[in-house]
Amino acid sequence: MPALFLAAKTTDARIEEISTSFEDFLYRAPYKFGGREVDRVTILNVRCRLRLRSGQSASGYAAIPLGNVWSFPAPGVPYETTLGAMKALALRIERITRSFTGFAHPLDINLALEPEYLKAAAEVSRELNLPVAIPKLCTLVTASPLDAALHDAFGKLHHRNAFSVCGKDFVRHDLAHYLNPEFRGEYLDQYIAPKMAKRVRMYHSVGASDSLTPGEVQKKIGDGLPECLEDWIPYSGVTAIKIKLNGNDLTWDAGRVAEIDRVTTAAQQKRGFRDWVYSLDFNERCPNVQYLLEFERTLKKMAPEAFTRVQYIEQPTARDLAADRGNTMFEAAKLRPIVIDESLTGLDTLLLARDMGYTGVALKACKGQSQTLLMAAAAQKYKMFRCVQDLTCPGAALVHSVGIAAHIPGTAAVEANAREYVPVASRGWEKRYPGIFDVRDGYLDAAGLDGPGLCTSQGSES
């Protein structure tokens, strides 16, 4: 394992304990994206304890959905196989993290261990004889709650919010050490809002198979929650809608947005609301940028009002940007910000995307608190559009996501769709954060997320 760095700080902490566990939940309704429907989730829970040289200690907690369909796409490979690989990798990452014996900041722990995590992913792929190797994105997702739990404990250890213990007083190195020489002399606190946003606009998701009106609902759930977009809008006071598209049927994609706009307009008129927006997510399914350009032109003609409400477009083409460097987004981004999501696995992919015409980044708790902070700094320096997306994150994972959106300056909005598809996984959290888990005005209330750590431990035992 790499030797730790010089210039130790008295604020550095050592890992005393770390443990993982899994929880399984069924969705109340399936969620279709990227051509597949998901109806269940496995949550990876992580608990840890850090200790200072003085002997003082604090515990941390974090959780994330193991979104194998999204992070480990492998056509023809069963769901249980990719999920099993992620669970095996999680246990391997737990052992690797526990073996780190130095005193350090969570940023430096993650920097030292990420190469080891990637080696572990390759080993698990070989040992399980997987037909497709575990990709880097999947490794980041699997490691993310361990990294977040360390940040949570580190903040609590110093009686500070986790976003406020990343400056020069706590971190040994400037950002050039983690990013590139352009960041020499800079620290993360320069890229964290000095005052947390009190609330963040919430994106409500509409999956590719979701019902839009009561008449489209074929089988009622009957659990008291809305079952179609038309009913969700007044129930949650929806002000922003994320639309999942197929990317392989231009007529369907444009028509779907137009129909969602028709239903939304009628519902918003009833409540006297005018200022709503859309985001469009193709989940990499567009064959090329020409498809996207034609889609933009078609939508502009078919439903001009809907087009004017599009705030950004997310990951239209395949995540491996280097495989098709000529498939640039310059023309498409003239009309709306084009955001990378699946492609973003580090500064190298952010810079490549920027060189190819992408103008925005999706920040995600499921890629780790350390990477999220670093990518947020890079996105701000390079003047890129910023939004926070989730992975159908319930409970602590959603609290973490809202915290990111509230602390990163200029964040457009945050997605929060576990309340639609798997609210059972958030049970108990609404008592602590009702403004996050029972939204009625279209905004997520960040009150309390400036407390010690990441505020992800509160309610975790509910």
Describe the structure.
The chain has helices at residues 68-71, 79-98, 106-127, 136-157, 229-236, 250-270, 289-302, 304-308, 330-333, 347-355, 369-381, 395-407, 418-421, 429-432, 434-437; strands spanning 14-33, 36-51, 57-65, 199-206, 240-244, 277-281, 310-314, 338-340, 360-363, 385-388, 411-415, 443-445. With 462 residues, it is an alpha/beta fold. The longest helix has 22 residues, at 106-127. It folds into two domains: 14-179, Enolase-like, domain 1, CATH 3.30.390.10; 191-445, TIM Barrel. The strands form two sheets. An eight-stranded parallel beta barrel has the order 4-5-6-7-8-9-10-11. The chain has a three-stranded antiparallel β-sheet with strand order 1-2-3.
In short, what is this structure?
The chain is an alpha/beta fold.
Specify the helix fraction band: 25-40%
Please give the order of strands in the largest beta sheet.
4-5-6-7-8-9-10-11
Number of strands: 12
SS element count, helices: 15
Which structural class fits the helix and strand makeup? alpha/beta
- The name of the CATH architecture of the largest domain is Alpha-Beta Barrel
Radius of gyration based on Cα positions: 21 Å
